[in-house]
């Protein structure tokens, strides 16, 4: 089973920025 550090709900501008920032910080 996959383990995640963060779940982003929504694919709009806010979700996109949140996903990019989380990736920069090493979240999965």
Task: Give your account of this protein's structure.
It is a single chain. With 28 residues, the chain is mainly α. Helices cover 43% and strands 0% of the residues. The chain contains 1 helix and no strands. The protein has one helix at residues 13-24. The longest helix is centred in the middle third of the chain and has 12 residues, at 13-24. The chain is flat, with a radius of gyration of 9 Å. The two termini are 14 Å apart.
Biggest β-sheet strands, sense, barrel: none
Count of helix runs: 1
- How helix-rich are the residues, as a percent range? 40-55%
Note the run of SSEs as H and E. H
Mean pLDDT: 87
Radius of gyration, taken over Cα atoms and rounded to an integer in Å: 9 Å
In percent terms, what proportion of residues is strand? Answer: under 5%
Number of strands: 0
Low-confidence stretches: none
Structural class: mainly alpha
- N- and C-termini, Cα separation: 14 Å
- The general outline is flat
């Amino acid at each position: 089973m996959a383990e995640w550090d963060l779940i982003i709900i929504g694919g709009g501008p806010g979700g996109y920025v949140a996903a990019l920032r989380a990736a920069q910080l090493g979240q999965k």
